[in-house]
């Protein structure tokens, strides 16, 4: 009997041990922390803490997370139970090391805590641009810190603060301080020519990061002139004086004077990047100009001084001096001169111009004169030009000469003026051409305006007994034209007038 009791007791103990072992196998296991890696630095204030999922016994597995600034977890932040394997933080303190652990819960079964993992939130943003010791920066220079810490984009911050100051202690009246939701900001109205120290930091509702490293940059001190080039000559009265833009300024001041000391200078405030001289310059004078920039807090030093000289004559261009074979209705041309009211032109058969056969004016917008009078063939003519403004007049240009084409008839006896009759002249419609006694029966006819543009051309076949040929001029506008007849290498020209 005692042996039986002992056997039963042994079996009972074995069953209890088996049941206990089976119950231990059914318990949930602690999760395994995964991200961020243990000891990671440069983390964001809204870092996501991730861990590996735990397989339960078929029920719903939930997780409890604790976060603390010590690994003793004396005063932990305890997060609500979650079925997810990660929780995003919010407004963690900058440059703070955190410890965290997690455990799994399935019904009444609670696992042990996971291994403790730690991470540290980044301490300060890194600066991007301008580069250290950058020079010639604009007064509204873009201050930018990097948008990431290492490879990780910065998240979980509400704003960035930027400071720039002429003092390394950031305590002078020139301090620029601005908060922006973006990681970059344009400064405003920094002092010209000054060296600035600058820094940045990040913040959110609960904390502000440390300041970044301090860099230095220098603001430009003057304006860069563009055109005209220094020592330019032969300019007109109307010239565009231009300079390079400086972002962040309000306007520019330009000064123009007839002396490099700028005594009695003309000063103008300009919002754009150019100023047009017009109406007060004088021919032959040299002028000096300079520019400076202005904004609400400061003004640059004056730019370099440049000078230019206004032309004091007119430069003739065509026909070339002493040209020969010039048409009997030439176009006289010269280089343009800006800002003048008109040009005065004279031409004559005498270089003395005591009694010029032409003395005419042309609008200042033109730089040519079309001779409308048929000049004498084989004759030398002299011409000159000058520019006139309300306040001043240039000197006369150099005197140039040209010689018109030689008289070439279509046969001296068979095709001279006595053998050609053109009528009626002026005409309102039909023009008749009577050509008699020519050895070559084929004559080419051209009608051109005073600019040399051909409006009508035809071939005249002279047949015995039929010397008169008629042409309709009704489509031509009223005005003076040149009728030219060509027979081989010989020509004959006559002025005709269309008038209706």
By DSSP (H or I, 4+ residues per run), the number of helices equals 1
CATH topology of the largest domain: Immunoglobulin-like
Helix content: under 10%
Termini gap: 158 Å
**What is the CATH first-level class name of the largest domain?**
Mainly Beta
Structural category is mainly beta
Low-confidence stretches: 1-26, 409-414
CATH architecture of the largest domain: Sandwich
Question: Beta-strand percentage?
Answer: 35-45%
Number of strands: 41
Tally the structural domains: 5
Largest sheet: 6 strands, mixed
Folded structure, characterized:
The protein is mostly beta strands and 500 residues long. It has five domains: 33-121, Sandwich (Immunoglobulin-like), CATH 2.60.40; 127-219, Immunoglobulins (Immunoglobulin-like); 232-310, Immunoglobulin-like (Sandwich), CATH 2.60.40; 316-404, Immunoglobulins (Immunoglobulin-like, Sandwich); 417-498, Immunoglobulin-like, CATH 2.60.40. It contains one helix and 41 strands. Strands 2, 4, 5, 7, 8 and 9 form a six-stranded mixed sheet that branches. A five-stranded mixed sheet has the order 11-19-18-15-16, with no helix packed on it. Strand 22 (251-257) and strand 23 (266-270) form a beta hairpin. Mean pLDDT is 88; it is low at 1-26 and 409-414.
Quick rundown:
By secondary structure, the protein is mainly β. The chain contains 1 helix and 41 strands.
List keywords for this structure.
single chain; 500 residues; mainly beta; Immunoglobulin-like; six-stranded mixed beta sheet; five-stranded mixed beta sheet; 1 helix; 41 strands; 5% helix; disordered N terminus
């Amino acid at each position: 009997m005692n042996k039986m009791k002992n056997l039963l007791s042994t079996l009972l103990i074995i069953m209890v041990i088996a049941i206990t072992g089976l119950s231990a196998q059914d318990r949930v296991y602690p999760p395994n922390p995964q991200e961020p890696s243990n000891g990671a630095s440069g983390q964001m204030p809204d870092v996501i803490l991730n861990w590996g999922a735990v397989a339960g016994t078929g029920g719903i597995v939930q997780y409890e997370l604790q976060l603390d600034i010590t690994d003793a977890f004396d005063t932990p932040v305890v997060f609500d139970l979650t079925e997810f394997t990660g929780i995003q933080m919010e407004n963690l303190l900058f440059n703070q090391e955190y410890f965290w652990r997690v455990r799994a819960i399935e019904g009444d079964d609670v696992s042990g805590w996971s291994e403790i993992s730690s991470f540290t939130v980044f301490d300060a943003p890194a600066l991007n641009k301008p580069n250290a010791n950058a020079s010639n920066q604009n007064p509204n220079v873009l201050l930018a810190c990097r948008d990431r810490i290492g490879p990780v984009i910065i998240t979980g911050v509400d704003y960035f603060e930027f400071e720039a100051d002429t003092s390394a202690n950031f305590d002078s009246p020139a301090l620029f301080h601005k908060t922006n939701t973006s990681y970059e900001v344009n400064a405003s109205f920094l002092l010209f020519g000054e060296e600035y120290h600058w820094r940045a930091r990040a913040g959110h509702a609960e904390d502000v990061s440390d300041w970044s490293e301090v860099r230095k940059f220098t603001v430009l001190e003057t304006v860069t002139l563009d055109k005209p080039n220094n020592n330019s000559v032969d300019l007109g009265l109307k010239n565009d004086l231009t300079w390079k833009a400086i972002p962040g300024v309000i306007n520019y001041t330009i000064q123009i004077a007839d002396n490099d000391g700028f005594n009695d200078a003309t000063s103008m405030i300009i919002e754009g990047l150019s100023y047009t001289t017009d109406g007060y310059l004088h021919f032959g004078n040299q002028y000096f100009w300079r520019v400076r920039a202005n904004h609400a807090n400061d003004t640059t030093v004056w730019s370099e001084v440049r000078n230019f000289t206004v032309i004091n004559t007119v430069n003739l261009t065509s026909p070339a001096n002493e040209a020969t074979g010039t048409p009997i209705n030439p176009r006289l041309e010269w280089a343009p001169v800006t800002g003048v009211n008109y040009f005065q032109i004279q031409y004559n058969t005498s270089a003395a111009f005591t009694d010029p056969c032409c003395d005419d004016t042309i609008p200042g917008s033109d730089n040519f004169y079309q001779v409308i009078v048929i000049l004498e063939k084989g004759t030398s003519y002299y011409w000159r030009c000058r520019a006139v403004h309300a306040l001043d007049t240039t000197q006369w240009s150099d005197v140039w000469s040209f010689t018109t084409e030689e008289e070439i008839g279509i046969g001296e006896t068979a095709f001279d003026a006595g053998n050609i009759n053109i009528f009626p002249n002026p005409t309102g419609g039909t023009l008749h051409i009577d050509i008699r006694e020519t050895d070559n029966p084929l004559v080419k006819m051209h009608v051109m305006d005073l600019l040399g543009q051909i409006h009508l051309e035809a071939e005249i076949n002279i047949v015995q007994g039929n010397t008169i040929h008629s042409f309709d001029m009704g489509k031509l506008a009223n005005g003076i034209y040149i009728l030219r007849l060509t027979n081989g290498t010989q020509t004959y020209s006559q002025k005709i007038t269309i008038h209706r």
